Amino acid sequence: MHTIAAVMQLLVAVAFLSIPVVRHRFGPAAKAAAVAELRRQNVRPEVLEENKLRFDAGGHETAAPMAVAAVMTVTAALNFAGADPAQLLTWIFSSLVVLMNAAIVHSNLTAVKSVEAAFRRKGDPELARVEVAAFLRAAEDAFPHWVRAQAYLRNTVVFAGSAVALVAVSLV
User: Fold this and answer.
1) H or E element, residue 111
2) Stretch 54-75: mean pLDDT, rounded?
3) Which of 140, 128, 152, 165 is nearest to 34 (CA)?
């Protein structure tokens, strides 16, 4: 059962690593599309940098998924080895991954409202003029169409893989 948990944890790690890979590869195109949309809306594109808005794999867009992947890889190694702390760590980290991924999915589903609220909080009158739905749609449309399917697959792997790992260590 430890081996099943470990394999699932490695799949979860790979799923999280796919986030910065995709953003690194296609983030510049998303930024260019977002800039074009801002220009269409008569908003200065520099407002992105001034407010630290990014579409690439920089900052937390790389650090967070890589940290999750590292933790899941270490926990998988402990499961492969049948180490005593593997079961407890699987319960802790796989549960946290499920909660984190649920928050990511929620954030993606409520992106327009969240970004609108964030723009209002900034107090920047130029940001307040941005038609956020069109802005985000332009950036999203710059990613290849398969990225949406990849996101669904990634979420399925994360949720199902974590659940299977939790069940597997419970049966030990």
Assistant:
1) helix 111-122
2) 89
3) 140
